[in-house]
Write a structure and sequence with these properties.
Blueprint: H1 2-14, H2 18-48, H3 53-71, E1 88-90, E2 93-95, E3 99-111, E4 124-130, E5 133-136, E6 147-156, E7 161-169, E8 177-186, E9 195-198, E10 205-216, H4 220-226, H5 234-238, H6 250-254, E11 265-272, E12 276-283, E13 287-294, E14 297-304, E15 308-316, E16 320-327, E17 339-340, E18 346-351, H7 356-396, H8 400-411, E19 424-431, H9 435-443, H10 449-456, E20 460-464, E21 468-469, E22 476-485, E23 494-505, E24 511-520, E25 529-539, E26 545-555, H11 562-593
Antiparallel strand pairs: 1-2, 3-6, 3-10, 4-5, 4-7, 7-8, 9-10, 11-12, 11-18, 12-13, 13-14, 15-16, 16-18, 17-18, 19-26, 20-22, 21-22, 22-23, 23-24, 24-25, 25-26
Helix pairs in contact: 7-8
Length: 607
């Protein structure tokens, strides 16, 4: 009796009751119905929406190649690989044309932006768009008057075209706010100066300098100006196509890459956004591609290897190994906007790898191979150019000694004196004299201009070395040291300053390039940055020349105040070079009439 009672109790405990069975069956039925409804909706959306032209062309080309291989014939030519022709993209339309327009947008600065944060500041960054093309600027932390000093190139199939600049406030948590935007119409080929445009918000202006140029789409200058000299497709356009032994993969199905790019590596990972987007990373010889399809949302990220500045190991949520890819300033149009760091750099972060170190080594190898390929291409191009020039010399000048001298001269390459990528146009004016006269009166060994100018500014301990020929940079260089007064409350009363000067004439002496690198030693973070400046003097008449001045702040090390240092140093040195140009013009005019005296140079105080 006791055993029967125990068995019946055990059965009642193991077997569900009728109510529990009904609830379980109802839950399963409801879940099955929901899954079936989602599948039906997904199929309906796929049937009603047009297929991607890229996928269509990919499937069509793949079927053509399969039929060709079955018949024993050669594979059909693939899009983007026939000859050296390139299909230009203008907005969303595709047209094969012989000319195009390169629109260069220089994002100088902005002012009076809306304070999007609770403390009244913003973290602004700009998105420059033309049709489907987009470029992203760095983020400037805690500023309503950011200074970017960046240039971006866009491609238009025809003019007029409209370029839209939208300024956003960066936010890691909430949705990013639109601070304001402006649309600028490019009507014809032209180059404008620095123009302030009002944003479509209650306050805010943005300073832009826009130029447009018509170039042949098949010329080398087209690719150098639009995609840069290090274009990831440059070598493919100039070399003979190699026969591919592998079929197209996911990199071609989701992107518009030509089929001559092989997927070398493929890894499962996740992209850090507002939440982790899981997908697959593909690496080719020219691109890094990430595809994600989560909750019926497609996400494609395409990063050309030429846009990658650095790859480094990192962590996500302290315990999840990750890889951070830092991009060059101004890089964009990768499918989704990159994340921004507090120092203004732009990046993508990938995590949740099965083997992070293996993926990191594959990325390093791909990037090194890409850069080595570009360097080899440069050497081959230089060798072909040298060979062509040597043949011309042999035909025109049969003297073997002169030909050898010419060949040796062509192989000499000089290092850049300053960092051209940080330069921003400051002013353009007319100087009352030729470039030769500017060098003699202002920069010459016997010139007294700098002594009088520094004395007028109450600078002390001025020492000017003699000009000497530079084998590294070409032209002539010299060093100038002095102690300059500081007006900032965070700086000492004065600071030691070292300025390196470089001057180089053209062959006909009609043009002069005068460059300077200045470093203040005793100011806070003085060893972190240099101020670079370039004066370009071009003869316009027998007694005048045009002077174009550019300046920029070159950061040698990263620091947390990088954006504020750039903004403050740029504004201060802008006023300085304008005063130097004005004083040099007055000094030259007075030197022609009466001869300069110490009291001739008067320097007004900074505003």
């Amino acid at each position: 009796m006791a055993v029967g009672t125990h068995c019946s109790w055990l059965l009642r405990s193991l077997l569900p009751s009728l109510w529990e069975a009904e609830v379980a069956i109802s839950a399963v039925a409801l879940l099955a119905a929901a899954v079936a409804l989602l599948l039906v909706l997904d199929e309906t959306a796929s049937a009603t929406s047009p297929s991607s032209p890229t996928t269509k062309s990919y499937d069509r080309d793949r079927r053509g190649r399969m039929r060709g291989s079955a018949k024993g014939s050669k594979p059909a030519a693939e899009p983007g690989c026939a000859g050296d022709e390139i299909t230009l993209v203008a907005g969303s339309s595709r047209s094969r044309s012989t000319t195009a327009y390169v629109i260069k947008v220089e994002l100088v600065s902005a002012k009076y932006l809306i304070g999007a944060n609770l403390n009244g500041t913003s973290e602004p960054y700009a998105v420059i768009s033309l049709g489907e093309q987009k470029r992203f600027s760095p983020m400037v932390p805690s500023s309503r008057n950011p200074v970017w000093g960046e240039a971006f190139s866009l491609l238009a199939g025809e003019l007029p075209a409209e370029v839209t600049i939208t300024v956003y406030d960066w936010d890691n948590v909430c949705k990013r706010k639109v601070i304001g935007s402006v649309t600028v119409a490019i009507l014809a080929q032209d180059e404008t100066g620095a123009v302030w445009y009002d944003l479509d918000s209650r306050s805010g202006q943005i300073c832009l300098r826009i130029s447009s140029k018509k170039v042949p789409s098949t010329s080398d200058s087209f690719f150098k100006q639009y995609t840069g000299a290090k274009s990831q497709r440059k070598m493919i356009l100039t070399r003979q196509r190699l026969a591919m032994t592998e079929d197209s993969g996911p990199l071609h199905a989701i992107t518009e890459f030509p089929h001559d790019q092989i997927v070398q590596h493929s890894y499962s990972c996740a992209l850090e956004r507002s939440f982790l987007r899981y997908g697959r990373m593909c690496i080719s010889a020219w691109h890094l591609c990430f595809q994600s399809h989560v909750f019926s949302k497609q996400l494609n990220v395409i990063i050309p290897l030429q846009d990658i500045y650095e790859i480094r190991r990192s962590q996500h949520s302290l315990i999840n190994p990750a890889i951070t890819i830092v991009l060059h300033t101004g890089a964009g149009d990768h499918g989704v906007p990159p994340l921004c760091c507090h120092n203004g750099s732009i990046r993508y972060k990938f995590t949740s790898f099965w083997n992070r170190n293996r993926t990191f080594r594959a990325l390093e190898t791909a990037l090194q191979s890409y850069r080595a390929t570009l360097e080899a291409e440069k050497q081959v191009s230089a060798h072909l150019l040298l060979k062509g020039e040597s043949m011309n010399v042999i035909r025109s000048r049969p003297d073997n000694i002169k030909t050898e001298d010419r060949r040796i001269g062509l192989t000499i390459t000089f290092q850049p004196f300053i960092n051209e990528h940080v330069l921003v146009d400051i002013t353009s004016n007319t100087f009352p004299g030729t470039p030769e006269k500017f060098f003699t009166v202002i920069l010459g060994e016997d010139a007294m201009f700098f002594q009088q100018y520094r004395n007028a500014r109450k600078d002390t301990d001025l020492k000017l070395s003699k000009w000497h020929v530079s084998d590294e940079y070409g032209g002539n260089v010299r060093e100038v040291t002095f102690r300059s007064l500081c007006h900032s409350p965070l700086c000492p009363p004065d600071t030691a300053v070292t300025e390196l000067q470089h001057a180089s004439f053209s062959n006909d002496k009609r043009n002069l390039i005068y460059e300077t690198k200045q470093q203040a030693h005793d100011v806070p973070f003085g060893s972190y940055f240099e101020i670079h400046c370039r004066w370009s003097l071009r003869t316009t008449s027998s007694s005048t020349c045009q002077v174009d001045i550019k300046i920029g702040v070159n950061m040698k090390k990263w620091c947390i105040l990088q954006s504020k240092i750039k903004s403050g140093a740029t504004d201060e040195y802008r006023r300085e070079v304008c005063k130097i140009l004005e004083a040099a013009s007055d000094y030259t005019v007075k030197a022609e009439s009466n001869g300069p005296a110490r009291e001739d140079i008067v320097v007004t105080s900074s505003a």
